[in-house]
Amino acid sequence: MITLEDIKKNPEVQQLILGSQEELNAMGYTEHSFRHIGIVSNRAGAVLEALGYDERRVELAKIAGYLHDIGNCVNRIDHAHSGAILAYQILKDMGMDAKERTEIMMAIGNHDEKTGTAVSDISAALILADKSDVHRERVVNTNLSTFDKHDKVNYAVTNSNFTISKENRKVILDLTIDTEISPVLDYFEIFMDRTMMSKHAAKFLNIWFELIINDTKLL
Q: What stretches of the chain adopt beta strand conformation (E)?
């Protein structure tokens, strides 16, 4: 069976990741490369593992997390859809079972808040993992004077903790935001759609999504 380690060693995957970040750098976007996909892969797997899913299901969630942003190499617009198709073909070429690669395609194709929603346990875990990665380390632009609102909000997040409570059946995103850089209200202006998508993804898994900012529970 194809594993995450097999995916990481695939030169085609590596080049798509590098190409995706190169394109996003040119557009002035935040980091979507190895740091981000590593975090998303780990968190997606951790969500299903904590909820008692079997080892293979956890592995598929990790693979979906690692591949979810390769569509940015085609174009930022509809990157979820193009990435899903790219991932399906790569996994097919690697010999992955048709049912498994279809599951991963579904998850990747539904991870963007503009066009997607939770359609499976893997897609729900991917959404929760992807939308939780808010942190100043994602800001590629080093010139603070040219920050747009996305840069400011991400850069203002000095600490980001994502935890899963199996006992209370909830996932918790706990953020520390430096309000001298960006007010908390700007976070919601930019990330409200992502926050609501995370809430619905958690509901799909029969758990609760909790958001804490600066020690205040907001959701």
A: 157-165, 170-177, 208-213, 216-217
The confidence band for 219, taking pLDDT boundaries of 50, 70 and 90, is confident
- Answer for the pair 31, 41: CB distance below 8 angstroms, yes or no: no
Q: Return the residue matching tokens 């939308």.
A: 131
Tokens of 2: 């194809």
User: Sheet holding 157-165: strands in order across?
Assistant: 157-165, 170-177, 208-213, 216-217
The CATH number for 19's domain is: 1.10.3210
The end-to-end CA distance of the chain, in Å, is: 39
pLDDT at 210 (0 to 100): 97
In angstroms, rounded to a whole number, what is the distance separating the alpha carbons of residues 161 and 185? 20
Domain span including residue 68: 4-217
How far is Cα 113 from Cα 97, in angstroms, rounded to an integer? 28
Q: How many domains does the chain have?
A: 1
**H-only helix segments in 69-183:** 79-93, 98-109, 121-131, 149-156
- Other residues' Cβ atoms within 10 Å of the Cβ of residue 166: 11
Model pTM score? 0.96
Note the pLDDT tens digit of each residue in 68-109. Answer: 999 999 999 999 999 999 999 999 999 999 999 999 999 999
pLDDT at 162 (0 to 100): 97
